[in-house]
Structures are given as C-alpha cells and as structure tokens.
Amino acid sequence: MTDIGVYHAVHPLHLLPAGRVEALVQAAQRQHVQLLFFDEDGIDLEQRTVQAMIPDPEQAGNWLLRECPLPEIVMNEMARLPAERSPVEQRLNRLVTFTSHPIHTKQKVQDMLSELPQWRDWIVPTTVCTGIDSMLQLLQQQRDLILKPDQGRQGQHIVRVRLTDNDQYSWQTGNTALILEMDGLRRLAEPLLERQTYLMQPYIQSVTEDGRPFDFRIHVQRGQDGTMQLTRLYVRYGQPGAVTSNLEQGGATADWTAWIKQQHPQHADDYIARLPELGLQLAQDIDGLYDYPLDELGLDIALDQQGKWWFYEANTAPQTREHEAERAEHAVAYAVHLSQRHLLLDALPKLPTNPQVIGLLSLQQADDTEYLFIEACSAVARLHDAILVRIYADDIFYPQQRLLGYVWEHSRWVAYDCPYPDVLFDRLKKRGIAAYSRMYSELSHIPATHELKSGSMSKMHIYRLLQQAPEPLQSLLIPFHESVHPKSIVRFIQKHQYTVLKPDTGSHGQHIFNIRQLEDGYEVYDQSYLHQLDTEQLQQFVSMTIGQGYILQRFVDSSTGQDYPFHLRTHVMKVADGQWDVAFVQPYVAVSAYRKVTNHEQTLRVATKWDWFLNLEYGEKQGGTMDQRIRELATGVAAYLEPLLKRRFPEVAIDIGIDRERNIWLFEANFNRIGNSFHSFEVAKYAVPYALSLLPKS
Fold first, then answer.
1. Rounded distance, CA 301 to CA 312, Å?
2. Residue 508 has pLDDT above 60, yes or no
3. By C-alpha distance, which of 322, 316, 331 is closest to 27?
4. Which among 158, 183, 676, 694 has most CB atoms closer than 10 A?
C-alpha cells in the first residue's frame, strides 16, 4: 500500500471541509493508498518522521494516531505562497514532493496570458488601481467598473462602481447598491484601496434577461497519467442584480449545457462542442507558463450579451463542495502517479558510468534555438571525453538517487536510467524558487555552473552596483531614476526631455514607454500607439507605475547612420581558467526608424555579423578601436560584478548601445534566460570546458 501525505500547517482534519476529507479517504481506499494526515507540529525533520492521523481500516469515521516515515509525496492542500511558509514548511519542501503549487496573482496571470496570441482577445482589460484618482479617471472612460482584490478569493470584497446618468456614483457590493456623491464615494473607496491592491476592469454584461450574473467554472486536474483532464464544468449564477455569481456570495450552480441551450439557443451546439476543449487548452497553456506542473486549476469564463467569451481569472485549490468525490479521485491518482514515476527507469538502459557526466538542467518548454544549443553542448562534451545528459526537474527520483536523463545519440535524444551527474550545467536557473528547492537541496553536493538566485538581478540592483565602479565602467551607466513618486518622475523627465520608462525585471521589450517632453506637453509612445498628454495626465499615467517595479532612464539614441535603432548583444563567458571572455557580439537592428525598442515583439529586427556592422558603421575591422572598447568594457563589467554578487555564474549577456558621438552605454545585463539564437556552437565551446573545470582535480 502506498503512503501519501495530506498536509497543511493547520491540521488538515481541522481545516478541510468534512466532505473533502471523506472523499479523499474513500478515493484512497479504492486506489489502495494510505493517507497520512499531519500538520507542522507533527513533523520531526531530524528523524524524518511524522505523527499522523490515519483512517481506521476497521471502523469508518474513526482515526488512529501513528508515527510514520515521512512520505515521499505530500498533497499540500490549500497550498500557501512561499513567503507565507514557516521555516519548518520550507524545510519540509526540501525533503518531500508537494503535489500543489500556487500561481501568480490575477493581474500577473492575465499579463502572461495576454502575451499568447490565441488568448489575447479573451482577456478582460485590467489595470492596477493606484488610488481613487486612477479609479475616477477610468470610470469617466468606461462608466461601469469592477473593483476586485488582486489576491482575493471566493468573490469577497468585489465592488461594482458605476457613473449614473446624473453624474452620481453607484457603489454596489453583493445585492446592495448605494447612490453617492463624490465625498461619499471617497469615504467608501479610500479605506478599501489602502488595505490591499485592487484591480479595475470594465464590467462585462454576462447576465441573464432577468439580471442574474453568470459565468462558467471549468475545473481541470492532473490524474493518474499525469496529464490535464476535465473534472467538472458547470455554470454559476447569482441573484438578480448581484455583482458576482460566486457560490460563497449567495450564488448557485446549474447544468451548463441546459443553461447554454436556454440562454443562447442559436449557438448552443457550437458552444457546447467547443467550451470543454477550450477550457482544457486554456488550462494547458496556463500550465505551460510555469516550469513546474500545476495539479489543478479553476477557470472562470464569461459569455457576454454579444456572444463574446471572456477569461476572468484562474484559481488554484478552487471550491469543489458539489463535486468532492470527482476531485478526490483525480487528486489521489495524481499523487500515486508521482510516487510511481521512478518505475519508468526499469524499462530504460543504464547510462555507462566511466565517462564524466555533465547534467544539463533544462526547461521542458524551450524554443528551437535552445535545443540547438543543447545539441551543440552534447557534441562539444564528446570532444572532451564526457557525456552530456539533459535533465528535467520532474525526472529526478530522490529516494532512488537516480534520474531519467536524455543523451543525444544518432541525431535523437535517447532516454537513460542515469546516476546523479558529476557536474551540473544549470540552464534552468531556478535556484531560490520554492518549487525547485528540493531539487537544488538534493543536488547541492554537486558543483554547479550557476549559483545566482532566480530573478535576483534586477536592473536597478546592477545600476546601483555600477554607480560605485571605477572608470571607465562607471561611464557606461545611463542616468536612471526609480519610479517611486509622480512628481520626482516628472522632474526627471523634464530634466532629460527624452526618457524610457521600463520594468525593473524581465520585459523582453514588453511594457516599455518612450516619453518625450514637447513645448506644450508630453509624447508617450507604448510601442504601438502615440499618446499626447498634458502635465496632469502624465502625472496620472506615471502614478500607475508606482510600486509596480518600473525605472526611468535617459533615452540614448543608439541608431545607425540610416537612423535605424540598434543594440549590441555582447555575450561574455567564463573560460576554463576562470577568466572572462567575449564569446560573440551580435548586432540587432530594427528595420523601422520610429520603433526605438529593438527587442519588442512588434519590432521587426534583423541580426547581422559584427564584422560587417563594424565596417559599415565605423569603418573598422575586428580588433580595431570600437571592437576593443566593446570587449574590454563588457569583460570589465563581468569581472567587476562577479565578487559583488558572491555567487558563481558562467555567463552574462550585456546589451550595449552606441550614441551618435560613439559613447558606449549599458542598457541591461542579463544573467538568467540568456539566448544565443545564432551562436550555439560558439557558446558551447565555452560552456562545456568551464563546467568540466569545476570537477575536483584527481
């Protein structure tokens, strides 16, 4: 019989609804599983045991207290965010495999989904409410808004705000609506907005003829084969005139097919055929946004009066009080699946142990250029009498200390039963992420190429470090300003006249604004549309970036002689002796003069050879003055940052611009997901020898 843990910091028998506990116990009995219910107080991390409550097999409803070995797989019901976990739970996460992982906030999930073309039109336009002024501004445009907490659950604290025909305000929670003047609106809104982050959305008319709000809940789970499958699809509807359809706010459920036939008879057959498939695809695409598997999602989908579908939000650990049995069957089956995955190794050949093994931690979701790079690394490893094994985090089996790895043989990836590798070549770069803490803890005795925490290298952090650098490195730094106060942001814009507002982390060219001061106002370009703002409107705009991780920089006009914007991707890598060298310099040139962000998705850019670019723009060859300046400054930045960051890293991609006066400027320094679209073999020639240099000398 397989042991599976059921855990929460508060004992799950006290926390979970009785119906859920009963359903889990019954599903476990059918699947020959023993469930161990335990909380934080029952864990002995030193002995790796738990004091657990187990169902009495001889008397239904009775419970037995037992001391048991720590189970390998733990269903962490109502999974908490990593920041909310106690030190004990954090350590537990490094010893067992949790089945559940929380996802980002509603806003972040929508932002990530909106980058996928197939779902862009499904996303309800959403902005962060930075205060009552931003709410009033959007209300003037939309006239009917929904305010919802960014991390809310069960429809709580959702408000509908409307501008009435006689310029008063309707403030509605649940079935209660108040008609207010401005002073009354402020009295209600300001305390609410100060307590937590709220989102603003236009109100979607997903209501019946008698005014009942409704939406569709699609519950998707992983099951016995580990793949996503539909658990239940149903419609939720509220009282006439209510704000939401949520069950916790007085809503009810109904059969979704009958509902569609009644509400949309002309399109019912098409909707009924497509909705389950669309919901499953949506769940799979949200799962694909994460590098770790999501065990279940509750998706909320609306259908407006014009027949347009809208995605409201995604929830982990959704409410399932009306289908606990179905939910439990899949939850237990998925836990069993995780506990038995190591049996896959029995059917695989064993990897030879005589060559040195480089374990390449890799992403399961990767593009073609990443696969080409891994293949290049495999070839270079063979030249150094080593074997490169591609590893996914889910394919490490800790009790067996074995892993499912892939070796490039005869132009294809062949699966092997592998021992732990001799050295880790970390392309995953997820150190510090809770879902990967067990993996990094288990493999901590193996030297690794990359030791920086994921996401730790914000632009602001790097800029501040370079502020203290000696010349000529300090001269690389563009004047910058953190987005913390609207008036100080406007003063920075007025001082430099032409600036760039961009996210402090990530972006890939996304969410970047060019702001130029004009004689009678300001010009804001969002890479798609050009906006003309006065000073008050600019302050309102920049106030929306406060607390959202934005920084300002003076704009640097890095353009060719034909006015095409460009930047130089300078890829700096460690060599086997520990020194830094430039693997390649890749110029990227935008083919339109008006688009200033060369890596934005709507910017058509071309890549050219560095020696061609040098000759055309500066009349030089490689080894000339400009080439030497770029290489010396890039390797100088890497060498300067290395001791300050206090962790090993094998590469840094430095994006550089050159202005009309041939001054060199640092745009960004990237440490995490570094691509090399056209230089796979050049990078592999550095990466593999450096990884092997970390092995202990015999």
1. 6
2. no
3. 331
4. 676
To 10 degrees, what angle do helices 486-496 and 535-543 make? 120
Say whether 149 sits in a helix, a strand or coil: strand
- With contact defined as beta carbons under 8 Å apart, do 286 and 297 qualify? yes
The phi-psi region of residue 157 (left if phi > 0; otherwise alpha if psi is between -120 and 50; otherwise beta) is left
Question: What is the overall mean pLDDT for the chain?
Answer: 90
Q: Are 575 and 689 in contact (CB under 8 A)?
A: yes
φ and ψ at residue 314, rounded to 5 degrees: -120, 140
CB atoms within 10 A of CB 39: 21
Token pair for 316: 């982990």
Q: What is the rounded CA–CA span in Å between residue 114 and residue 282?
A: 12
Highest mean pLDDT among 303-312, 334-343, 522-531: 334-343
pLDDT band at 601 (very low <50, low <70, confident <90, very high): low
Q: Which two tokens stand for residue 221?
A: 């789970």
Confidence at 506, pLDDT banded by 50, 70, 90: low
* Cβ atoms 492, 481 nearer than 8 A: yes
Q: What mean pLDDT comes out for the span 447-461?
A: 87
> Of 548, 544, 545, 484, which is closest to residue 135 (Cα–Cα)?
544
Q: How far is residue 605's CA from residue 655's CA, in Å, rounded to a whole number?
A: 15
- In this structure, what token pair is assigned to residue 544? 């929306």
**What distance in Å separates the CA atoms of residue 366 and residue 299, rounded to the nearest whole number?**
25
Residue type, 35: L
HEC sequence for 402-419: EEEEEEEECCEEEEEEEE
CA angle 109, 111, 116 (to 5 degrees): 95
> Can you give the pLDDT at residue 212?
86
d(CA 495, CA 514) in angstroms, rounded, equals 15
| CB distance 406 to 413 below 8 Å | yes
Percent of the chain scoring above 90 in pLDDT: 61
Q: Could you tell me the two tokens for 393?
A: 């985090």
Q: Is 403 helix (H, G, I), strand (E, B) or coil?
A: strand
The secondary structure of residue 16, as a DSSP letter, is S
H or E stretch covering 615: helix 610-618
> Helix, strand, or coil here: 64?
strand
Q: Which two tokens stand for residue 494?
A: 């007025």
CB 435 within 8 A of CB 406: no
Distance, CA of 152 to CA of 204 (rounded, Å): 19
